Amino acid sequence: MASSGLLHSATISLPNELTLLIIDHLEDDNKALCALARASRGLQYLAEERLYRSISLLSVTDLDAIITAFTYRHDRVRAVQTLKILYQYRPEDLNDSDESRKTFNECVAHMANLREWHIESPYDNSHRWEAAGGEKWVEGDMHRFCCALEAACVEGPREADVIAAEHRLGKNVERTVGLALLESLTIHSHGIAVDFWELGGFHCLFRHPALRNLHVSCVAFPDAEIPELASHVNKTPLTSLIFDECELEPKSLLSILRTPARLKHLTLGENVFNYTRLRRSKPSLSKNPSATLEALSAVAHSLESLIHLDPTWRNDPSLNVLRSVRPHGEGLRNFHALVYLECDTDSLLHRAVIMNRDIAPPSLEILRVRRHWEAPSDLWEQPPDLDHYAALPSLTTLELLQSAYVGHDLSNASYICEADWLRNRHAKAYRLSKAGINLRMSLELHKSQSLIPPYLHGELLPIDICVYDANSIGFHRHIQPNDESKTGFCVSPKDSAAPNIPANMDDDEPPPETDQLGDTDIQLIRFETKTALRALTVRFLGSRYRPHMMEMFEDTSDEDEWDVDDLDEEEDMDLDVELSDDDDDDDFEDGHGPVFFELNGEFFIQDSDSESISGSDENEDEGEDEDGDDEMHDAVESQMSGI
Hints:
Protein name: F-box domain-containing protein
Largest sheet: 13 strands, mixed
Region (Disordered): 494-517, 578-643
Number of helices: 18
């Protein structure tokens, strides 16, 4: 370490190795590091390397203090490796912060060791920039960020060549160009008076000499190639690129995708959620499938995962009907590394590629088909024709992903697991299994309808939950005409592919293969789905929504992690009503559904309308509970002897 020579002083008697271990041990204790920095000059250098390594700015009121610290010691600027600019929207602070932000941004331009940079406009995801401040952010802060990145693109490679030459001569030269080592960058911003900011000089994002992970949102790209990128074809180390709520065009996309040497992960996120604001969605990629596929061909040799978030479905009233178009060229036939694809059925990737087997990616293993909650049909009631996907020879997993938010009908367990839909779903999954494809159906649960991307600091991200997995449910079981009259059912572990075996079967023959589900299967799947959805509701909305019955299934030792209570009172009351109404319709809450219990490591389900063994009435006295447990135990004992 360059600073090791500073440790040799009369005040330090420990060997360098032990001193460094002590400082590393205190890395997360800023108070201790500050005290250590005051001990000696050598320890100050090492302690401040850790103190200033990661900076998260949540308020502009912190800028004056950090600017002062940077002014006294420039080494503190060089120490920064992670910077997160997450200013909160407080007009009384922001309106007087222009000069402070300007000075701080000049310091950012000299952060020679910065590796990770996250930028969020304090005016983002709102119309607040229309009043005051948004224009200064775009023309001030964003402009300075752009200039600093442009300097890194131009001066960084030159300095790297000089440093490499000096190293060959045995000399150690420190870097001086700011942002030249930047590896990860996230920018969430907006335009001067609209939701989208023009690319302009930010084409430097795609020429950066070290950047590997780039995530940008709400950018309006030009409908033309970007000439500044022509000299950087296959030269950048970018491996992950995410466009989030952007206005993409095939021509500029082609220029961008030509620059990485080996891009592995690409998300083409068009404007799906921000269409209700100052301008409507105008998806361009699916309207020009041949031009878009030509742009994608630039990364055919390396791309491993591809996601397309496309709002074309807004104008399609019959999404469940699969349609195809025949593009020019070879589609994704030459994408031999592509194993994951995600899109909706109106995306060009689905219509032009998935629907044409001969130009589909030859190594595709996972296909995820999306559906938005505002779409005219949902995946629970009207899934697309699943038999078509059996024609993809390499496919092993087909996942249907339905989005919804807490309290929406599409996130209701009774709706998701409606008996006829579930049986039909399982029958189709059986046919897919014969082609070696496992069907999964998942819910992408959002906190609320109004919380939309790009997701900013502190906002809860959507959570995916699998509500149906054909392999876990299995296709071997005994189906009886009066399945609901069974006295007991032995259920295999949730993640096991082992078949479900009725507990009252007397023969030792294995259950036959079938594409059917029994009534008890339906009840069990519905119950597991409801339990999982309630757990997610608690995570989104706070511990006061935890139903009493969930204590049977979850570890409640750490209540703090459930306290996410940032809703207003009116929203809380509305959701209370929704959850209460949902409970009233569920058979598991009124003592008429199955009862779950465990014996000798096995998980059992008991169908009964008897209150004596339901164990679900909170008003039962202690003696009645004990009698119910005894009767349940005796029933299980007799069933176990017959298995």
